Amino acid sequence: MNAVTIGTRVIPGTTCPYCGVGCGVQVRQEHQAVAVSGDPQHPANHGRLCSKGAALGETLDLEGRLLEPMVDGQAVDWAHALDRVASRFGEVIAAHGPDAVAFYVSGQLLTEDYYVANKLMKGFIGSGNIDTNSRLCMSTAVAAHKRAFGADAVPGCYEDLELADLVVIVGSNTAWAHPVLYQRLVAAKQARPGMRVVVIDPRRTATCDIADLHLGLRPGSDAFLFNGLLDFLRREDALDWGYLEASAEGFSAALSTACESAGSIPQVAAACGLDEASVLAFYRWFARTARTVTVFSQGINQSSSGVDKANAIINVHLATGRIGKPGACPFSITGQPNAMGGREVGGLANQLAAHMDFEDPAAVERVQRFWQAPGMAGGPGLKAIDLFEAIHAGKVKAVWIMATNPVVSLPNADRVAEALARCDFVVVSDCMRDTDTTRYAHVLLPAATWGEKEGTVTNSERRISRQRAFLPPPGHARPDWWIISQVAARMGFAAAFDYRQPVEIFREHARLSSLENRGDRAFDIGALADIDSDAYDALQPVQWPVSMATGQGTARLYADGRFYTASGRARLVAVNPRYPHYALDDAYPLALNTGRIRDQWHTMTRSAKTPRLTAHLDEPFVQIHPVDAAACRLATGDIARISSRWGAMLARVTVTEEQRPGGVFAPMHWNAQFASAGRVDAVVNPATDPVSGQPELKHTPARVQRLATQWQAFALSREPLAGLGAEYWCRIRGQRHWRHEMAGCQPPGDWAAWARSLLGAEGEWLIFEDEAQGRFRAACIREGQVSGALFVTTQGALPERGWLAALMRQEVLEEADRVHLLAGRPARGVVESGPAVCACFNVGLNTLLSAIESDGLDSVEAIGQALKAGTNCGSCVPELRKLIERRNGPVAA
Ligand code: SF4
Fold first, then answer.
1. Which residue of 305, 360, 779, 825 lies most exposed, with the fewest beta carbons within 10 A?
2. How far apart are CA 251 and CA 247, in angstroms?
């Protein structure tokens, strides 16, 4: 165990709470601050952290935390709040039945929290109505695994990416969404330059930095490509007939459907919008490379035909016998830190618990008997999209939302807000006081968060790791498992929820996994069923199954060619490819794609707390190809309205050839606290995959129009500003200040009066106005410091923000700076660092461009030596390479 010392206490390592890579984290106290670093002994990251993980220590302050229970906006004690939740849920159930209530939970919960929530809903309330935000992230992979393998069990491990000779990355910007796993791949490719990487994605993302081939295919056409590959493998005699004979079924139907739907290479290329040579190159590499791993993620999963796409990928691996072997497997990588743990306990509405299914009456009986459950759910509950529709329709009358923010993250998000506004009773457990979702809560329950609670999470390679507490929960915050158990007790189920610590829940979970499991269920952690508190505290990362038979865990599954289907054979699935559910048309001619950016996490409630992470991409943006930008009369820096049949958002335009013509991309993160209209999911359509229920977040017919702004501005202030009076604004946290970027369609009239109304009238005001040039600039000095500044333009550009932001950090404004303050730039010769590229060492764009130009830096290594940029987490390396290429031409990856 990796232990470090905080004060006089020894703190074991913990796990990052962000993405599904599941990196091990060491925590130490440096002076008054908590600092984190990568755990060199954790098998997922071997000491690395990405920019988000490295900044975790900066997100632990109590600003914005929900610290006490609240009922109808009033702070109350726990007993009052818990009584209210239990009694209202009880009343609704008594009047309308168990299906009139629901839980909507999260891949942010620890496995122990998840287990208790699922047990309460499915075993004691008696409804299947518990679904999770993991529905949006990997329910498609779950369904595809079950169709192919008979179990939701990921075949491989991270090491397989390093051992492969060909890594195919489909629908994943791994470099930004799973950065440490990507860095492991980068290192492996550097060590073995013969390794090939193919990236299949409509966008040319940072992940393409190491790609030998990028297939920028038509959105949604992946199944055509993989069906064509299956047919090609047959034609090239590259199938593993022995494996198909011994370990698979369904091949003939899958192949004939693939042949009919895909056709020749020219037909595949046409269906996918690719050139024939690229398709052929990919097919040949795949056919000739035994050690091939195909990584797939949200570009496959978040689709109205995602399960078929995932099975088309799995088909080519089964047909070549490339599964269960070192360096060979299809590999779904999950988005959230504990999406996998949720799958294990039955956090999805259509699962039971411990990977058992409602379809199996013996499994339902087994779980009921184990739990001694009085009112077992008879079948699956409502999946996320249907659940919120049922709330909207008044069929579900009470909902408890835990650790998630559906008003930002669910598609058709305005309708989700409408549903919650109509709902009789909304409970939200969260660590944050003010989110887009907590605004609709009748009862708010303060939850403990990362660093304050104990439990386990499971990463994308089935590795269970401990999250450990190193801080006491602040105020009245409590762990989720405790909150749920207290409500259960008040609903009359005290005996079944008499947990005093998470290890008791973990033991129960482990016992259920091995109950009457004779090797017929993949998920089995029975070897941990008797774990005591000390062993739980010391638990080392381990990959399930961890059964009596497997002992120390299992890196790869299916190595023996046996699967969890009735026949013991894997199933190839006949896939009829389909394009996205809603087609483009004249009114909505562009395909809106959504996704993550490098330095933010989900709906920003934690990651936007640190200036280091907001400095990289600080505004909601929309990326558009130059051809489409010209057609829409858009230029970089404009504010655009992106609208669909479901809703609209506003975002800053970036024109880039990295975006495929015919499509636009906008990030998923911005919420109502940080932007006036930055919620992309307000635009996104609610179509879902018919098998998995996962929404089509990657394709919404949309149009993009320039917002007819008359002015643009930015304000610097000590506190967040309210009542901005601008159609567009976004709020950015800086060090010791806030910045607001604004744009409006009507000028406020009197700029000076507006400045004072925003920043406060007190203090000495410096004001400059040039009506002819359309400029207004004002700054307020209080007690020798710049307390606020406002820069407005009606026709030109605004100054860069970096130097002015630095003035906000000064204790005393120096006279030399005061002279230049309203010019907005320092004395000649000082270079503005510009927007941050390297978050670890805060190296800005202008600094990099200047050094590349003046010092002749011609490699990423040279930049690292000169400026340190790119030498820590490595997440910015693709951007560094692009900057060099901008001046010097192509640089070797
Ligand atoms: Fe955390 Fe994922 Fe980054 Fe690892 S890669 S540090 S788990 S966000």
1. 360
2. 11
Nearest atom, ligand 1, residue 601 CA: 8
- Distance, in Å, from the CA atom of 520 to the CA atom of 549, rounded to the nearest integer, reads 13
Count of C-beta atoms within a 10 Å radius of residue 567:
12
Ligand 1, atom nearest to 179 Cα? 5
CA dihedral sign, ordered 782, 788, 794, 799: positive
Average pLDDT over residues 25-47: 88
CB-facing half-sphere around the CA of 788: CA atoms within 13 A: 23
DSSP-assigned letter for residue 15? E
DSSP three-state, residue 57 = helix
Q: 780 CB contacts (<8 Å, ≥6 apart)?
A: 755, 759, 760, 762, 763, 764, 765, 766, 786, 787, 788, 789
How many angstroms separate the CA atoms of 752 and 444, rounded?
41
Q: Give the pLDDT of residue 149.
A: 98
Q: How far apart are CA 683 and CA 140, in angstroms?
A: 22
**Strand, helix or coil at 481?**
helix
CA atoms in the 13 A half-sphere facing the CB of 816: 6
Cα 391 from Cα 641, distance rounded (Å) = 29
Contact 549, 519 (CB under 8 A): yes
C-beta of 180 in contact with ligand 1 (< 6 A) = yes
Structure-block tokens of residue 837 = 């590229």
- Detail the DSSP E strand segments found in 718-829: 728-734, 737-744, 764-770, 775-782, 785-793
pLDDT in tens, 590-644: 999 999 999 898 888 888 888 889 888 999 999 999 999 999 999 999 999 999 9
DSSP state of 341: H
Please provide the size of the chain in residues. Answer: 893
Counting ligand 1 atoms within 8 A of each CB, the residue from 14, 15, 18 with the most, and so the one to mutate, is 18
- Order of strands, edge to edge, in the sheet holding 196-200? 213-215, 196-200, 166-170, 292-296, 329-332
Q: 458 CA to middle of ligand 1, Å?
A: 13
Mean pLDDT of the chain: 94
What is the Å distance from ligand 1's center to 306 Cα?
25
| ω into 545 cis (within 30 of 0) | yes
50 contacts 337 by C-beta, under 8 angstroms:
no
pTM listed for this prediction: 0.94
**Where does the pLDDT of residue 830 fall: very low under 50, low under 70, confident under 90, or very high at 90 and above?**
low
18 lines ligand 1 (CB under 6 A): yes
In whole angstroms, give the CA distance from residue 788 to residue 761: 11
Distance CA 156, CA 293 (A): 9
Q: Please give the Cα distance from 269 to 217 (Å, whole number).
A: 9
Residue type, 680: V
335 lines ligand 1 (CB under 6 A): no
Q: How far is CA 224 from CA 311, 375, 428, 624, in A?
A: 12, 46, 42, 25
Tell me, in angstroms, the distance from the centre of ligand 1 to residue 142's CA.
22
CA distance 165 to 327: 7
Task: Judge if the beta carbon of residue 52 lies within 6 A of ligand 1.
Answer: yes
For residues 521 and 881, give the distance between their C-alpha atoms in angstroms, rounded to a whole number.
47
Beta bridge partners of 325: 328
pLDDT tens digit string along 698-717? Answer: 999 999 999 999 999 999 99
A 10 A CB-CB count for 87 gives: 13
251 in Cβ contact with 197 (< 8 Å):
no
> Backbone phi, then psi, for 352, in 5-degree steps?
-95, -90
